[in-house]
Amino acid sequence: MQQTKRMNLLDFPLIKKFIQSRWYPGIFQWIAMAVFATVVYQLVAGTSNPSKNFGTSTTWVLWWPIIPIVFLVLGRFWCAVCPFGKLSDLVRKFVGSERPVPKFLKKYGIWLIDLFFILITWADHIWGIVESPRGSGYLLLILTTMVVATSVFYERRTFCKTLCFLGGLAGNYSRSGMLELRGTPDICKTCKTQSCFKGNEKTEGCPMFQFVRTMDTSADCNLCGNCVKTCPNNSIRISPRKPTSELWGIKNPKMEHAFLASVIMGIVFVQNITMLEIWQDILQIIGSLTGTQNYNVNFTVAFIISMLLPIGMLMLTARLTASKWSKTAIMENFVRFGYAIIPLDLAGHVAHNLFHMVTEGKAVWFNTVSLFGVNLTGDPSFASATTVQFMQYGLILLGMAGSIYTVYRIGNKGSFSKLFPYYALMVLLAAINIYLFSLPMSHRV
């Protein structure tokens, strides 16, 4: 049977012309830069009341809840317009030395990204970054300093590729995304220029070090359009696809990706638990075991347990389904099926932040117009907490369905009995999320 040809958005002249023009992605980048500058200024110099601060509401009530949805719908498009990426481009243009990325960063970059994501999430609860406009502002300034430093010394977007705390999250979620950029194999194999990677006299090569000819994942493609601009053979295509379809076709699954998928689920757990009325009771129980009432110590214990829980559950499932109880077979299962957790991660992340976006969303508008001297007050919510809960349940069930189907495809459509432990794991993770979302939740901002 002849394979159906995939739609190529670049077949539409207006889309292709726009992406090939100097306006893409520049027009979006400069808008993002302007908003970013305003956000940082307001965080550092504006009111210290987080519910009244434009920077806090824009970052944590609007941007952070929306970003996983962007990754799902548009892949890593945000990374193309991110202010950090644009800043990196500007620094390298004027003072960059373009040294090769250190071998250490090439080898361990994803693990560093995983570590930074975990540390920033932990630090938020220890120092109250979300609740503190100054804390959020200083965090952004620290990240800005890292961007500048790496851009002065190293080529392309080294920070984005190997150090950005959002990189691992963006990569994992984009694997579930509905958009992909690829080369046409029959055309790419005869190409002599390799301009998609090397660039040309007008446009830099891929800032994320991707070679379109061999690229089989959207995890590191930020849809910046450089390859579209530089390809002389009209080989590039940008195509819609079914969500999660990449997860069961990954040729080289990696431990760091599966590890992060499990960790994100644990972080979703702890983010929910700390907003519940029972959180203080949990701290008391942990305190009785640690022998101290120090919040930082007891939260750290809860944080570690929350992350280890899904890792341990996936490891146990991998052991139950291993054909041979060897370390190699167990780890292979852990890595392969770890990707199946990503749809549930995405659903849990969106569901958690949906609470903030819906019940605090009007604060973004109130604080935006306040910049122009207009003071508005009122209920910041768009809907009741009960309505949000039902929306959260629906998202979790949708994520569970995506994870179960991913298990089915990763398992090569194997028998139900063979894959049952993984199905049960996804149902259990979904049930934990639904239970947590069913409990009364308080605002953090």
Commentary on this structure:
The protein is mainly α. It has 20 helices and 2 strands. The protein has helices at residues 13-20, 26-45, 54-74, 77-81, 83-95, 103-127, 133-153, 158-162, 167-175, 185-188, 195-198, 226-230, 255-273, 279-290, 295-321, 327-338, 342-360, 362-370, 385-410, 416-437; strands at residues 179-182, 237-240. Strands 1-2 form a two-stranded antiparallel ribbon. The longest helix is centred in the last third of the chain and has 27 residues, at 295-321. It starts with 12 loop residues before the first helix and ends in an 8-residue tail after the last helix. The model has no long low-confidence stretch (mean pLDDT 91).
Explain the layout of strands and helices.
Blueprint: H1 13-20, H2 26-45, H3 54-74, H4 77-81, H5 83-95, H6 103-127, H7 133-153, H8 158-162, H9 167-175, E1 179-182, H10 185-188, H11 195-198, H12 226-230, E2 237-240, H13 255-273, H14 279-290, H15 295-321, H16 327-338, H17 342-360, H18 362-370, H19 385-410, H20 416-437
Antiparallel strand pairs: 1-2
Helix pairs in contact: 2-3, 2-7, 3-9, 3-17, 3-18, 5-7, 6-13, 13-15, 13-16, 13-17, 13-20, 14-15, 15-16, 15-20, 17-19, 19-20
